[in-house]
Amino acid sequence: MMYTSRRTKQEPPKYRAGQNLFDEVKSGYARTYVLGQESLFPKEGYDFPQRDVSQRKNLYKINEDSPFNVPKDEKYIRKGKVDKVITKNRSKVLQTETACTKCAAKAIAMPTPGELRPINSEIAKQAIRKDLDAQVTLREKIKVAQMKEDAKWANYENKLGQDTLTITGNIATKKWKKQQELANDYKEQFALHARVKEEERRQDLREAAILKQQQKEEELKERIHQEKLRQLAHERNREFQARNDELLQRREKRIEDDLAAEKLIAKQKAEVDQRMEERKEFERQKRETSNMIRNRLIENQSRQLADTLAKQQKWQGIAESEMVKRQEAERKRQMQRRKEMQEERNRDWLKSQRERDMKYIDQRDEPDFYDTPDDDYRRAEEEFRKKKLLTLQKDHRWQIEDRRRKEREEVNQRRKYYDNQFFLKDNEW
User: Fold this and answer.
1) What ranges does the record give for the region Disordered, renumbered to this chain (predicted)?
2) Of 75, 103, 164, 233, which has the fewest beta carbons less than 10 angstroms from its beta carbon?
């Protein structure tokens, strides 16, 4: 890889205004980096000049075989760089060594019949000596050429270093002059900026005085407005108190009416409860009478059954023959069957009676006997009670609807006023 001193294109370095390139601590603006702080820029009336930084260029090329081509990541010339020139001529050296080796092998080998060994050996020794001398001479030439090449490139690199230092010094001087000009320009801009700030401060003071006067006028208007609002609130409060007293009287009257209606309803309910108790007592007596009739019927049936059993025992003692015994047995079986069926019917009847009593305990049973004047009177009285109960329920519902209607009218009446005030709730009494 060919090494050159040409640098890649990079962003120009940032310098402070008026800084010393070699000792920035001595500069007057060493601790104020104006270009890096936008808060120090003038607000208006200043344009930053365009600064063209010239790029340094080396218009020369270096041979890639130069041992001074040191990569950027290396600090010294490696041995492989130095041996590169020798490696190129290695093929010639190897050819010479191969020829010398062949001659030496022939000289050292065993003699063949008819071969003149002394003459051949001397010739081989001379050839070997000549080849070795040629190799030494070639190495010396290569070493001298390498030293000349190194000296040539060292001088060339020194010349390039001197040129680079000269260019760097010129660029630093030019930058220092530009920074001095920029520092002076900044001083002028800062002074102008301070004058503008002072003028703005005076303008702010004038505006503050105007605003203060306007604020006093607004406060006077606000006090007058607040006084009017207090008078209006006092008038509305007085109207509210009168309206509230009227509503409280109406509410007390409504409460008294509700209590009277509730007393009437409680009285009517007590009368209805008394009639229901009388009806339950009548039904209880009726059930007791029915149970007494059933018990008497059962006792009569039991007595008849006992008589029948006595007769059967009497007949059993009389019957002697087998036929009579079989007939008696058949008759007993049939009697037992009829008895079981009768008991089953009796149980079913009692069960149905109990179910009917449980189902229609609050209903009036139809009598199982012929109507009498008492029954007609009782039926007419029951119809009259039913009609009266329906009338009371209807009146109660009408009272509830009327009360709700009046409450809705009061709510709609309150919404017509400008202020909606808080009143006592209906459930607070």
Assistant:
1) 320-349
2) 75
Distance CA 317, CA 306 (A): 17
**Could you write out the DSSP letters of every residue in 60-81?**
----TT-TT---TT-SS--HHH
Considering only residues 379 and 66, tell me which one the structure prediction assigns the higher pLDDT: 379
Number of domains composing the chain? 2
Last residue of a domain, one of 161, 190, 206: 206
Burial of 182 (0-12, 13-18, 19+ CB in 10 A): buried
Structure tokens at 63: 């041979």
Amino acid at 204: D
Report the 10 Å Cβ neighbour count for 66. 20
What DSSP state is assigned to residue 14? P
Q: What is the DSSP string of 235-255?
A: HHHHHHHHHHHHHHHHHHHHH
To which residue do tokens 């004047």 refer? 373
Q: 0.85 exceeded by the pTM? A: no
Range of the structural domain that residue 341 is part of: 326-361
* Residue 49, C-beta contacts closer than 8 angstroms, at least 6 positions apart: 182
Q: Return the SS3 of 288.
A: helix
